[in-house]
Amino acid sequence: MKFCSECAHPVSLQIPPDDNRMRYVCSNCGAIHYQNPKMVIGSIPVWERDGELRVLLCKRAIEPQYGFWTLPAGFMENGETTSAAAQRETEEEAGARIQLHELFSLLNVPHVHQVHLFYRATLLDIDYAAGIESLEVALFTEAEIPWEEIAFPTVEITLRAFFSDLKKIRQEGGHFSLHAQDIFKPMRPGLAPK
Amino acid sequence: MKFCSECAHPVSLQIPPDDNRMRYVCSNCGAIHYQNPKMVIGSIPVWERDGELRVLLCKRAIEPQYGFWTLPAGFMENGETTSAAAQRETEEEAGARIQLHELFSLLNVPHVHQVHLFYRATLLDIDYAAGIESLEVALFTEAEIPWEEIAFPTVEITLRAFFSDLKKIRQEGGHFSLHAQDIFKPMRPGLAPK
Ligand SMILES: [Zn+2]
Ligand SMILES: [Zn+2]
Predict the structure, then answer these.
(1) Which of A101-110, A178-187, B1-10, B117-126 has the lowest mean pLDDT?
(2) Could you report the average pLDDT of every consecutive run of 10 residues in chain A (194 residues)?
(3) Which residue of chain A is at minimal alpha-carbon distance from B19?
């Protein structure tokens, strides 16, 4: 940020009165321009037939991580709810209609000022189709997932926790629980979200 | 937003290519200025002695809702995690040190572009003190809570769900679970967060 978005005067970094952090402040109109973390919201769309469970992944057609696989997810928009965002992103990126279940993972990525949320979901049909931000959309069993080509650490963590919970539930009963985790550094340098 | 924060040129509202929403776009430098929801993070700080459980509330010294009571909470900052934000806000507003537990509530407030998260917490001591944004900080049993003077619907929903869960757990066992709710309109017109 270089200029005030209210009056076009140059801004400077300073700590406002009654604050303890550097902010972009406009000395002309007095506006303080706060910058806050963004939420990235997605779903874990599942299709289960004959005891075989598959999840829907999208191959990214955009940077960062062009060509890598991700769960459908994207930035939450003003005016929508977290669950509406999960459904919208699943529709936009994977052309898929889902029944949304409860929140499954909450992952902080403080070095990029993001919080990622993923909801469990059931595909209502398999008439999915790659959206404009995807090269390809496909269903994968756990064994088929291209683990070396997953776009973001938060997606890998969510998928691994999901299949781990699933195995436990099938063996011992119980239910899915919220997975909360903080990612302080890129897990694989050079492959982290920018 | 009236001017581009990168080049000071006037911005205009338009739908960029490959997008489907109105954004503030700069025709001079091409910057697209996205606006996204903000996260408000807080805690439910609990002090339990002789079977009597009390929660710590803050009387607001700032607008909106000056003079009304709230759980300690505030905007998440860049570079921090959701749990760090909950601890920081509890320290700043209530001068209180807590042990943070799991996420208790996730409340969407789409008409103000906010998502509110509250974590369960245990007070480590009762040497709390009003911070600069609070007039007063005090412990309340469920019966003592000034329900008519609660600052925000998300705080009231969180407190009611917390005591409801607590009663159920004491009677039937079990544990706290995540409460997710969407608030589409102010519960009490005129008293909603601005
Ligand atoms: Zn200004
Ligand atoms: Zn510009």
Answers:
(1) A178-187
(2) 97 93 96 97 96 96 96 97 98 97 98 98 97 96 97 98 97 95 73 50
(3) A132
* Domain annotation covers residue A188: no
Question: Which one-letter DSSP state was computed for residue A76?
Answer: P
- Report if residue B16 sits inside a domain: yes
Residues 74-133 of A with CB under 8 A from B: 75-84, 102-103, 106, 108, 110-111, 113, 115, 132
CA distances from B52 to B47, B48, B85, B124, B169 (A): 8, 6, 28, 16, 15
Tell whether B33 lies on the interface with A, counting CB pairs under 8 A.
yes
Residues B116, B96 within the same domain: yes
What CATH number corresponds to the domain at position A127?
Answer: 3.90.79.10
* Chain B residues inside the 8 Å CB shell of A5: 1-5, 11, 33
What span, in angstroms and rounded, lies between the C-alpha atoms of B122 and B102? 11
Contacts of A8 in chain B (CB under 8 A): 2-3, 8, 10
**Enclosing domain of residue A18:** 1-35
* B43 and B13 in a common domain: no
Measure in Å the smallest separation between the Cα of B76 and chain A Cα atoms: 7
For chain A, say whether B3 makes contact (Cβ under 8 Å).
yes
The answer to whether the CB atoms of A103 and B106 lie below 8 A apart is yes
Residue B20 resides in a domain = yes
From residue A133, give the alpha-carbon distance in Å to each of A34, A71, A82, A139, B134. 30, 12, 20, 17, 46
Q: Do residues B69 and B59 make contact, with C-beta atoms less than 8 angstroms apart?
A: yes
In a domain, A122, yes or no: yes
